[in-house]
Write a structure and sequence with these properties.
Keywords: Cobalamin biosynthesis, Methyltransferase, S-adenosyl-L-methionine, Transferase. The chain is an alpha/beta fold and about 450 residues long. The protein is built from 14 helices and 19 strands. Strand 14, helix 13 and strand 15 form a beta-alpha-beta unit.
Length: about 450
Protein backbone atom coordinates (compact mmCIF):
# COMPACT_ATOMS: atom_id res chain seq x y z
CA UNK A 1 0.00 0.00 0.00
CA UNK A 2 1.27 3.45 -0.85
CA UNK A 3 2.40 5.51 2.14
CA UNK A 4 -0.17 8.24 2.70
CA UNK A 5 2.58 10.64 3.73
CA UNK A 6 3.96 10.46 0.19
CA UNK A 7 0.67 11.32 -1.49
CA UNK A 8 1.00 14.30 -3.79
CA UNK A 9 -0.76 17.44 -2.63
CA UNK A 10 -1.76 20.38 -4.81
CA UNK A 11 0.57 23.35 -4.58
CA UNK A 12 -1.07 26.44 -3.14
CA UNK A 13 -0.98 29.58 -5.32
CA UNK A 14 2.13 31.63 -4.58
CA UNK A 15 1.59 34.81 -2.57
CA UNK A 16 5.20 35.90 -3.10
CA UNK A 17 6.81 36.00 -6.54
CA UNK A 18 10.32 37.16 -7.33
CA UNK A 19 10.78 38.28 -10.94
CA UNK A 20 14.20 38.68 -12.48
CA UNK A 21 14.33 41.65 -14.84
CA UNK A 22 16.56 41.47 -17.89
CA UNK A 23 17.35 44.91 -19.28
CA UNK A 24 16.77 43.61 -22.79
CA UNK A 25 13.22 42.49 -21.97
CA UNK A 26 12.14 45.16 -19.50
CA UNK A 27 8.34 45.36 -19.16
CA UNK A 28 7.91 42.58 -21.74
CA UNK A 29 9.66 40.12 -19.44
CA UNK A 30 7.77 36.79 -19.76
CA UNK A 31 5.65 36.16 -16.68
CA UNK A 32 5.93 39.71 -15.39
CA UNK A 33 2.44 40.85 -16.40
CA UNK A 34 0.86 37.75 -14.87
CA UNK A 35 2.81 38.23 -11.63
CA UNK A 36 1.79 41.89 -11.37
CA UNK A 37 -1.86 41.20 -12.14
CA UNK A 38 -3.67 41.39 -8.83
CA UNK A 39 -0.53 42.17 -6.80
CA UNK A 40 -1.11 44.16 -3.65
CA UNK A 41 2.56 44.96 -3.04
CA UNK A 42 5.47 45.46 -5.44
CA UNK A 43 9.01 45.80 -4.11
CA UNK A 44 12.07 46.72 -6.14
CA UNK A 45 14.83 49.16 -6.88
CA UNK A 46 13.77 52.55 -8.17
CA UNK A 47 14.95 51.74 -11.71
CA UNK A 48 12.84 48.57 -11.80
CA UNK A 49 9.73 50.19 -10.37
CA UNK A 50 10.05 52.95 -12.99
CA UNK A 51 10.08 50.53 -15.91
CA UNK A 52 7.33 48.02 -15.09
CA UNK A 53 3.55 48.53 -15.20
CA UNK A 54 2.73 48.57 -11.49
CA UNK A 55 -1.07 48.17 -11.10
CA UNK A 56 -2.99 51.28 -10.10
CA UNK A 57 -3.47 51.51 -6.36
CA UNK A 58 -0.83 48.88 -5.64
CA UNK A 59 1.48 49.60 -2.72
CA UNK A 60 5.17 49.84 -3.56
CA UNK A 61 8.40 49.71 -1.56
CA UNK A 62 11.58 51.12 -3.05
CA UNK A 63 14.54 49.03 -2.00
CA UNK A 64 17.13 50.72 0.17
CA UNK A 65 17.92 49.11 3.50
CA UNK A 66 16.73 45.52 3.10
CA UNK A 67 15.44 44.79 6.62
CA UNK A 68 12.37 47.11 6.45
CA UNK A 69 11.48 45.74 3.01
CA UNK A 70 11.68 42.14 4.28
CA UNK A 71 9.38 43.02 7.18
CA UNK A 72 6.87 44.62 4.79
CA UNK A 73 6.97 41.58 2.48
CA UNK A 74 6.49 39.20 5.43
CA UNK A 75 3.43 41.14 6.61
CA UNK A 76 1.93 40.98 3.14
CA UNK A 77 2.46 37.23 2.91
CA UNK A 78 0.98 36.73 6.38
CA UNK A 79 -2.07 38.77 5.38
CA UNK A 80 -2.46 36.83 2.13
CA UNK A 81 -1.67 39.87 -0.01
CA UNK A 82 0.05 38.84 -3.29
CA UNK A 83 3.51 40.41 -3.34
CA UNK A 84 6.00 40.79 -6.17
CA UNK A 85 9.71 41.47 -5.73
CA UNK A 86 11.64 42.81 -8.72
CA UNK A 87 15.32 41.98 -9.04
CA UNK A 88 18.07 42.04 -11.64
CA UNK A 89 18.83 38.97 -13.71
CA UNK A 90 18.71 35.73 -11.75
CA UNK A 91 17.69 36.61 -8.17
CA UNK A 92 18.89 33.21 -7.00
CA UNK A 93 22.52 34.03 -7.88
CA UNK A 94 23.86 36.16 -5.02
CA UNK A 95 20.42 37.75 -5.01
CA UNK A 96 17.44 38.39 -2.80
CA UNK A 97 16.07 34.83 -2.84
CA UNK A 98 18.55 33.77 -0.14
CA UNK A 99 17.52 36.60 2.14
CA UNK A 100 13.83 35.91 1.62
CA UNK A 101 14.27 32.25 2.51
CA UNK A 102 16.37 33.17 5.54
CA UNK A 103 13.39 35.26 6.68
CA UNK A 104 11.16 32.17 6.48
CA UNK A 105 9.56 33.05 3.16
CA UNK A 106 9.20 30.66 0.22
CA UNK A 107 8.94 32.61 -3.03
CA UNK A 108 8.09 31.51 -6.52
CA UNK A 109 11.03 32.60 -8.67
CA UNK A 110 10.94 33.67 -12.32
CA UNK A 111 14.60 34.16 -13.20
CA UNK A 112 16.03 36.07 -16.13
CA UNK A 113 19.48 35.55 -17.61
CA UNK A 114 22.01 36.32 -14.88
CA UNK A 115 24.59 39.02 -15.42
CA UNK A 116 27.30 36.37 -15.10
CA UNK A 117 25.79 34.22 -17.83
CA UNK A 118 25.35 37.30 -20.01
CA UNK A 119 28.97 38.38 -19.48
CA UNK A 120 30.34 34.99 -20.46
CA UNK A 121 27.99 34.93 -23.44
CA UNK A 122 29.30 38.31 -24.58
CA UNK A 123 32.82 36.91 -24.19
CA UNK A 124 31.84 33.89 -26.26
CA UNK A 125 33.13 31.57 -23.56
CA UNK A 126 31.69 28.63 -21.67
CA UNK A 127 31.56 29.05 -17.89
CA UNK A 128 31.01 25.59 -16.46
CA UNK A 129 34.60 25.70 -15.20
CA UNK A 130 34.30 29.11 -13.56
CA UNK A 131 33.93 30.15 -9.95
CA UNK A 132 31.39 32.89 -9.24
CA UNK A 133 32.10 35.21 -6.33
CA UNK A 134 30.68 38.48 -5.10
CA UNK A 135 32.39 41.66 -3.93
CA UNK A 136 29.08 43.44 -3.46
CA UNK A 137 28.61 44.62 0.10
CA UNK A 138 31.45 42.51 1.48
CA UNK A 139 35.20 42.37 1.92
CA UNK A 140 36.93 42.52 -1.45
CA UNK A 141 39.82 40.28 -0.44
CA UNK A 142 38.13 36.86 -0.86
CA UNK A 143 37.04 37.74 -4.40
CA UNK A 144 40.49 39.11 -5.19
CA UNK A 145 42.21 36.01 -3.85
CA UNK A 146 39.90 33.79 -5.90
CA UNK A 147 41.04 35.71 -8.98
CA UNK A 148 44.64 35.18 -7.95
CA UNK A 149 44.19 31.45 -7.39
CA UNK A 150 41.79 30.18 -10.06
CA UNK A 151 41.88 30.21 -13.86
CA UNK A 152 38.31 31.43 -14.43
CA UNK A 153 36.42 33.66 -12.01
CA UNK A 154 33.36 35.89 -12.40
CA UNK A 155 33.07 38.71 -9.90
CA UNK A 156 29.87 40.57 -9.13
CA UNK A 157 31.19 44.04 -8.37
CA UNK A 158 30.07 47.14 -6.50
CA UNK A 159 31.16 50.79 -6.39
CA UNK A 160 34.58 50.79 -4.74
CA UNK A 161 34.95 47.06 -5.25
CA UNK A 162 35.07 46.69 -9.00
CA UNK A 163 37.37 46.26 -11.96
CA UNK A 164 39.71 49.11 -10.93
CA UNK A 165 40.26 47.79 -7.42
CA UNK A 166 40.53 44.16 -8.51
CA UNK A 167 42.85 45.11 -11.36
CA UNK A 168 45.13 46.92 -8.92
CA UNK A 169 45.23 43.83 -6.73
CA UNK A 170 46.09 41.57 -9.67
CA UNK A 171 49.13 43.48 -10.87
CA UNK A 172 51.92 40.91 -10.90
CA UNK A 173 49.54 38.05 -11.78
CA UNK A 174 49.26 36.96 -15.41
CA UNK A 175 45.58 37.50 -16.03
CA UNK A 176 43.34 38.99 -18.67
CA UNK A 177 40.21 40.76 -17.56
CA UNK A 178 36.90 41.11 -19.34
CA UNK A 179 34.75 43.94 -18.00
CA UNK A 180 31.09 43.91 -19.01
CA UNK A 181 29.40 47.26 -18.28
CA UNK A 182 25.67 48.05 -18.38
CA UNK A 183 24.72 44.65 -19.77
CA UNK A 184 21.52 44.58 -21.79
CA UNK A 185 21.26 48.34 -22.16
CA UNK A 186 22.06 50.78 -24.95
CA UNK A 187 25.20 51.69 -23.01
CA UNK A 188 26.50 48.11 -22.92
CA UNK A 189 30.25 47.84 -23.38
CA UNK A 190 32.50 44.75 -23.14
CA UNK A 191 36.22 45.45 -22.80
CA UNK A 192 39.17 43.09 -22.58
CA UNK A 193 42.11 44.54 -20.68
CA UNK A 194 45.05 43.94 -18.36
CA UNK A 195 45.01 44.32 -14.58
CA UNK A 196 47.22 47.40 -14.74
CA UNK A 197 45.02 49.08 -17.34
CA UNK A 198 41.84 48.18 -15.45
CA UNK A 199 43.28 49.80 -12.32
CA UNK A 200 43.83 53.06 -14.22
CA UNK A 201 40.31 53.35 -15.66
CA UNK A 202 36.98 54.54 -14.36
CA UNK A 203 34.27 51.95 -14.98
CA UNK A 204 30.51 52.32 -15.19
CA UNK A 205 28.33 50.63 -12.60
CA UNK A 206 26.94 48.09 -12.66
CA UNK A 207 29.58 45.89 -14.26
CA UNK A 208 30.66 42.27 -14.11
CA UNK A 209 34.32 41.28 -14.15
CA UNK A 210 35.65 38.07 -15.69
CA UNK A 211 39.19 37.19 -14.61
CA UNK A 212 40.80 34.61 -16.90
CA UNK A 213 44.17 32.88 -16.93
CA UNK A 214 44.11 31.44 -20.42
CA UNK A 215 45.10 32.23 -24.02
CA UNK A 216 43.08 35.01 -25.62
CA UNK A 217 41.90 32.87 -28.54
CA UNK A 218 38.39 32.74 -27.05
CA UNK A 219 38.33 36.49 -26.59
CA UNK A 220 35.19 38.60 -26.14
CA UNK A 221 32.94 39.51 -29.01
CA UNK A 222 31.57 42.75 -27.54
CA UNK A 223 31.84 46.06 -29.39
CA UNK A 224 35.00 47.20 -27.60
CA UNK A 225 36.58 43.79 -27.26
CA UNK A 226 38.19 43.61 -30.69
CA UNK A 227 39.33 47.21 -30.71
CA UNK A 228 40.62 47.53 -27.16
CA UNK A 229 44.33 48.27 -27.30
CA UNK A 230 45.12 46.04 -24.34
CA UNK A 231 43.81 42.81 -25.83
CA UNK A 232 47.06 41.76 -27.49
CA UNK A 233 49.09 42.60 -24.43
CA UNK A 234 47.51 39.83 -22.40
CA UNK A 235 47.71 37.00 -24.91
CA UNK A 236 51.15 35.72 -24.06
CA UNK A 237 50.77 36.15 -20.31
CA UNK A 238 47.41 34.45 -20.29
CA UNK A 239 48.74 31.50 -22.25
CA UNK A 240 51.58 30.85 -19.82
CA UNK A 241 49.42 31.42 -16.75
CA UNK A 242 46.54 29.20 -17.73
CA UNK A 243 48.49 26.31 -19.20
CA UNK A 244 49.27 24.58 -15.92
CA UNK A 245 46.17 25.49 -13.90
CA UNK A 246 43.31 23.17 -13.10
CA UNK A 247 40.52 23.27 -15.66
CA UNK A 248 37.30 22.04 -14.12
CA UNK A 249 34.21 23.29 -12.32
CA UNK A 250 35.43 22.45 -8.82
CA UNK A 251 37.51 25.33 -7.53
CA UNK A 252 39.47 24.84 -4.33
CA UNK A 253 37.25 25.34 -1.29
CA UNK A 254 39.11 24.40 1.87
CA UNK A 255 37.00 24.45 5.05
CA UNK A 256 37.18 27.73 6.91
CA UNK A 257 38.28 25.98 10.11
CA UNK A 258 40.99 23.99 8.36
CA UNK A 259 41.56 20.25 8.57
CA UNK A 260 43.67 17.88 10.69
CA UNK A 261 41.61 19.30 13.53
CA UNK A 262 42.64 18.60 17.15
CA UNK A 263 41.17 15.62 18.96
CA UNK A 264 39.11 18.03 21.05
CA UNK A 265 37.12 18.90 17.92
CA UNK A 266 35.53 15.43 18.01
CA UNK A 267 33.68 13.37 20.59
CA UNK A 268 35.55 10.08 21.01
CA UNK A 269 35.96 7.25 23.46
CA UNK A 270 39.21 6.74 25.37
CA UNK A 271 41.27 8.53 22.70
CA UNK A 272 40.11 6.05 20.04
CA UNK A 273 40.56 8.57 17.27
CA UNK A 274 42.96 9.01 14.36
CA UNK A 275 45.51 11.52 15.62
CA UNK A 276 45.71 14.86 13.77
CA UNK A 277 49.24 14.21 12.52
CA UNK A 278 48.16 10.91 10.98
CA UNK A 279 44.86 12.30 9.79
CA UNK A 280 46.58 15.11 7.91
CA UNK A 281 48.55 12.65 5.80
CA UNK A 282 45.66 10.22 5.39
CA UNK A 283 43.29 12.92 4.12
CA UNK A 284 45.96 14.22 1.76
CA UNK A 285 46.45 10.73 0.35
CA UNK A 286 42.69 10.16 -0.07
CA UNK A 287 42.42 13.29 -2.24
CA UNK A 288 38.85 14.20 -1.25
CA UNK A 289 36.99 16.72 -3.36
CA UNK A 290 33.59 17.45 -4.81
CA UNK A 291 32.48 14.58 -7.03
CA UNK A 292 34.39 11.85 -5.19
CA UNK A 293 33.11 9.19 -2.77
CA UNK A 294 35.24 8.13 0.19
CA UNK A 295 34.66 5.13 2.45
CA UNK A 296 35.86 5.42 6.06
CA UNK A 297 36.02 1.84 7.40
CA UNK A 298 36.42 1.27 11.12
CA UNK A 299 35.50 4.91 11.39
CA UNK A 300 35.48 5.20 15.20
CA UNK A 301 34.80 8.89 15.78
CA UNK A 302 34.46 9.51 12.03
CA UNK A 303 37.20 12.16 12.01
CA UNK A 304 38.83 11.07 8.74
CA UNK A 305 35.55 10.80 6.85
CA UNK A 306 34.25 14.06 8.27
CA UNK A 307 37.35 15.94 7.15
CA UNK A 308 36.98 14.42 3.69
CA UNK A 309 33.42 15.74 3.74
CA UNK A 310 34.66 19.18 4.77
CA UNK A 311 36.72 19.14 1.59
CA UNK A 312 33.69 18.38 -0.57
CA UNK A 313 33.67 14.58 -0.88
CA UNK A 314 30.69 12.32 -0.32
CA UNK A 315 31.38 9.98 2.60
CA UNK A 316 30.21 6.58 3.83
CA UNK A 317 31.43 5.73 7.35
CA UNK A 318 31.33 2.08 8.44
CA UNK A 319 31.70 0.82 12.01
CA UNK A 320 30.45 -2.33 13.69
CA UNK A 321 29.86 -0.64 17.07
CA UNK A 322 26.46 1.08 17.43
CA UNK A 323 27.95 3.48 20.00
CA UNK A 324 30.64 4.48 17.52
CA UNK A 325 27.98 4.98 14.85
CA UNK A 326 26.15 7.36 17.19
CA UNK A 327 29.40 9.26 17.80
CA UNK A 328 30.00 9.58 14.05
CA UNK A 329 26.52 10.99 13.51
CA UNK A 330 26.96 13.45 16.36
CA UNK A 331 30.38 14.59 15.14
CA UNK A 332 29.18 14.94 11.56
CA UNK A 333 26.27 17.08 12.70
CA UNK A 334 28.58 19.23 14.81
CA UNK A 335 30.78 19.87 11.77
CA UNK A 336 27.77 20.33 9.45
CA UNK A 337 28.81 17.46 7.18
CA UNK A 338 26.41 14.91 5.68
CA UNK A 339 27.97 11.49 6.33
CA UNK A 340 26.11 8.27 5.60
CA UNK A 341 26.71 5.96 8.56
CA UNK A 342 26.54 2.18 8.12
CA UNK A 343 26.47 0.11 11.31
CA UNK A 344 27.89 -3.34 10.69
CA UNK A 345 31.05 -5.40 10.60
CA UNK A 346 33.19 -5.20 7.47
CA UNK A 347 33.60 -6.85 5.06
CA UNK A 348 29.94 -7.95 5.13
CA UNK A 349 28.75 -4.38 5.73
CA UNK A 350 30.42 -3.27 2.49
CA UNK A 351 28.09 -5.30 0.29
CA UNK A 352 25.75 -3.08 -1.69
CA UNK A 353 27.56 0.17 -0.94
CA UNK A 354 28.16 2.47 -3.91
CA UNK A 355 31.58 2.16 -5.52
CA UNK A 356 34.19 4.37 -3.83
CA UNK A 357 36.88 6.52 -5.38
CA UNK A 358 39.07 6.19 -2.29
CA UNK A 359 38.93 4.10 0.89
CA UNK A 360 40.41 4.70 4.33
CA UNK A 361 40.89 1.49 6.32
CA UNK A 362 41.36 2.41 9.95
CA UNK A 363 40.24 -0.90 11.41
CA UNK A 364 39.74 -4.55 10.50
CA UNK A 365 42.11 -7.28 9.43
CA UNK A 366 43.32 -8.68 6.12
CA UNK A 367 39.80 -9.79 5.20
CA UNK A 368 38.58 -6.19 5.22
CA UNK A 369 41.53 -4.97 3.16
CA UNK A 370 41.05 -7.80 0.65
CA UNK A 371 37.36 -6.93 0.29
CA UNK A 372 38.25 -3.29 -0.32
CA UNK A 373 40.85 -4.20 -2.95
CA UNK A 374 38.28 -6.36 -4.75
CA UNK A 375 36.14 -3.25 -5.25
CA UNK A 376 39.05 -1.63 -7.10
CA UNK A 377 38.93 1.94 -5.77
CA UNK A 378 41.51 4.28 -7.22
CA UNK A 379 43.25 4.78 -3.87
CA UNK A 380 43.42 2.86 -0.60
CA UNK A 381 44.90 4.33 2.57
CA UNK A 382 45.60 2.00 5.52
CA UNK A 383 46.82 2.89 9.03
CA UNK A 384 48.52 0.19 11.06
CA UNK A 385 49.87 0.34 14.60
CA UNK A 386 51.15 -3.25 14.57
CA UNK A 387 54.37 -3.57 12.57
CA UNK A 388 53.84 -7.26 11.85
CA UNK A 389 50.74 -6.38 9.79
CA UNK A 390 52.59 -4.06 7.43
CA UNK A 391 54.22 -6.75 5.25
CA UNK A 392 51.04 -8.77 4.65
CA UNK A 393 49.08 -5.59 3.86
CA UNK A 394 51.68 -4.45 1.32
CA UNK A 395 51.73 -7.91 -0.27
CA UNK A 396 47.94 -8.03 -0.49
CA UNK A 397 47.65 -4.62 -2.13
CA UNK A 398 50.42 -5.30 -4.63
CA UNK A 399 48.85 -8.61 -5.57
CA UNK A 400 45.61 -6.74 -6.22
CA UNK A 401 47.36 -4.42 -8.69
CA UNK A 402 48.21 -1.45 -6.45
CA UNK A 403 51.45 0.46 -6.32
CA UNK A 404 52.18 0.86 -2.61
CA UNK A 405 54.23 3.28 -0.61
CA UNK A 406 54.30 3.86 3.10
CA UNK A 407 55.66 5.95 5.91
CA UNK A 408 55.88 5.66 9.66
CA UNK A 409 54.67 8.71 11.55
CA UNK A 410 56.03 9.24 15.06
CA UNK A 411 54.97 12.62 16.39
CA UNK A 412 56.11 14.18 19.64
CA UNK A 413 53.97 17.00 21.00
CA UNK A 414 54.98 19.86 23.23
CA UNK A 415 53.94 19.38 26.86
CA UNK A 416 54.46 21.70 29.81
CA UNK A 417 56.55 20.75 32.83
CA UNK A 418 56.46 22.31 36.28
CA UNK A 419 58.51 25.46 36.51
CA UNK A 420 57.82 26.56 32.96
CA UNK A 421 59.93 23.96 31.17
CA UNK A 422 58.70 22.11 28.10
CA UNK A 423 59.12 18.47 27.17
CA UNK A 424 58.19 16.35 24.16
CA UNK A 425 55.42 13.81 24.70
CA UNK A 426 55.60 11.02 22.15
CA UNK A 427 52.50 9.57 20.50
CA UNK A 428 52.33 5.97 19.34
CA UNK A 429 54.01 5.50 15.95
CA UNK A 430 51.66 4.59 13.09
CA UNK A 431 52.43 3.22 9.64
CA UNK A 432 50.41 4.80 6.81
CA UNK A 433 50.22 2.77 3.60
CA UNK A 434 48.92 4.26 0.36
CA UNK A 435 47.90 2.02 -2.52
CA UNK A 436 47.26 3.54 -5.92
CA UNK A 437 45.60 1.40 -8.58
CA UNK A 438 47.82 0.82 -11.58
Amino acid sequence: MRDASLRAEPVAPATLTVVGIDAADGPSRPGLAEALDGAGLVVGAARHLATVPVPAGCATVTLGPLAPALERIARAVTDGVPAVVLASGDPGLFGIVRRLRAAGLTPRVLPAVSSVAAAFARAGRSWDDAAVVSAHGRDLRPALNACRALPAVAVLTAPGAGAAEIGAGLVGWSRRLVVAENLGTDAERVVETTPADAAARVWSDPHVLLCLAEPADDSPTGADATSDATSDATSGAGASAGAGMRRDNQPAAAPAGGWALPESAYAHRASMITKPEVRALAVARLRPRLGRLVWDIGAGSGSVGIECGLLGAAVVAVDRDPDAAALIRSNAQAHRVDVRVVTGAAPAALAGLPEPDAVFVGGGGPGVLAAVAERRPGRVVVTLAAVDRVGPAVTLLRAAGYAVDGVQLAAARLADLPGGSIRLAATNPVVVLTGERQ
